[in-house]
Amino acid sequence: MLLNFYSMFCGSVQILKQYMNRLEDVNGKYNLVSEGISKGYPLSPLMCAIILESLDTEMGEGFAYTRYMDDWVILTRTRGAVRSIVKKMHKIMKKLKFNLAKDKTYIGKISNRFDFLGYRFGREGIESCLPTKTIRGFINKTTMLYELKYA
Q1: What pLDDT is attached to residue 77?
Q2: Residue 136 — left, alpha, or beta (φ > 0 → left; ψ -120 to 50 → alpha)?
Q3: Closest Cα partner for 34 from 49, 17, 52, 12?
């Protein structure tokens, strides 16, 4: 029985090592990636849930917090609460050895609107199903293709 458990454990460790050390195709070049959670793999949601579970438990109370995979929203009533939560968030992420994506981070008033999971939120709730970034990207790509064809 103990030998069976040991062999299962070793097999699981091998699968995790293969999962963490993988090749990713970036514009026709293969790069060896040995850290981070890979997108599109069947194990990714499970790995994300396991790793970020401590984030959920350590966040505390006194504000609205929701997370889907590695995207989250925290809503508070005061600036002081925001500062406290940001400090706590950085501490937890450092402990997990994760980096916050500053280009995807928004700290501000809801009335200024923000994007989350493909929706644009504002004071009244969901305002749009397409974030501004997505619309701009579509316009830029369409303009580029038009210029390539008719230049």
Answers
A1: 83
A2: alpha
A3: 17
pLDDT in tens, 132-145: 778 888 898 999 88
Distance between CA atoms of 11 and 39, rounded to whole angstroms? 22
DSSP state of 38: P
Choice between 31 and 9, residue whose per-residue pLDDT is larger: 31
**DSSP letter assigned to residue 106:** -
Burial track 121-132 (b if 16+ CB lie within 10 A, e otherwise): beeeeeeeeebe
Q: Which residues share a beta bridge with 31?
A: 24
What one-character DSSP code corresponds to residue 151?
-
Which pLDDT belongs to residue 60? 75
The three-state secondary structure class of 121 is strand
Candidates 74, 72, 49, 50; CA nearest to 61 is 74
CB 129 within 8 A of CB 119: yes
